[in-house]
Every structure is written in structure tokens, then in C-alpha cells.
Design goal:
Length: about 50
Amino acid sequence: MGGLVKNLIKGAVVAKVVQIAQRELSKPQNQQKIKQAFQKLQQQRRSH
């Protein structure tokens, strides 16, 4: 029974994190930050 409760709690926490992430990703300023970070990563890979 304890394992079931732990799984339910984990599921709820994951669902909340996903919900918050989706909300943050929908903000234009965060989308721009993500694009810039992704471009920076690509440039670092090319230079190696």
C-alpha cells in the first residue's frame, strides 16, 4: 500500500512540474532565452 501512495505522490509532483514548465515555455521572453542557449550550445559543438 505504501508503494502505491509514493507512486501517486511522484505522479502528482511530475504533473505539476510539467504544468509549470509548459506555462514558462509559453512566455515569449523564455522562448527567446531557450533559443539563445540552444544556439550557444550548437556553436560550442562546432568549435570542438
